[in-house]
Amino acid sequence: MNLEGRKIIVNKSLAGLKAMLQHPEGYRDIMPEGLRKFEPLRNGFRFSLRGMPEIALNINEVTDKEVVLSSGDSNLDFSLKGEMNPLSETQTEIQLFFKGKFNPFIKMMVEKPLQNFINTLTDNIEKSI
Fold first, then answer.
1. What is the DSSP letter of 78?
2. Hey, which end of the chain has fewer CB within 10 Å, N or C?
């Protein structure tokens, strides 16, 4: 299953955006409303939203082109990638991509909530950065 958010432009340099996304605490401010728990971990974070199970994400890679998060649960195979493109010294374009391997039944249950999650993350990145 592949999902994607819309491309947005944030008023932050690539270096500033990259610095924020390297640290687990940097993700707290872009989480959707209904955040019930947010726990920074050494190489990622664990969070839960109202009506959803707890999810752990590992920050695998942060480069000048992308940030890659992956599931912290070995039973779930998915990644969330943000592709970054510097536009100027003070603006960076970013777009989120979700890639997951789920059976058809699980896919049917999670596709719409995951797309809503990606859309909300995109909106919150645009507002808060």
1. E
2. N
Q: Return the structure tokens found at 64.
A: 């000048």
- Whether pTM > 0.85 for this model: the answer is yes
Looking at residue 103, what DSSP letter applies?
-
pLDDT in tens, 46-69: 999 988 889 999 999 999 999 999
Nearest-5° angle of CA 88, CA 91, CA 96?
120
| CA dihedral of 16, 67, 126, 6, whole degrees rounded to 10 | 150
Alpha-carbon span 126 to 128, nearest angstrom: 6
Specify the 3-state DSSP secondary structure of 7.
Answer: coil
Do 129 and 20 touch, CB atoms closer than 8 A?
A: yes
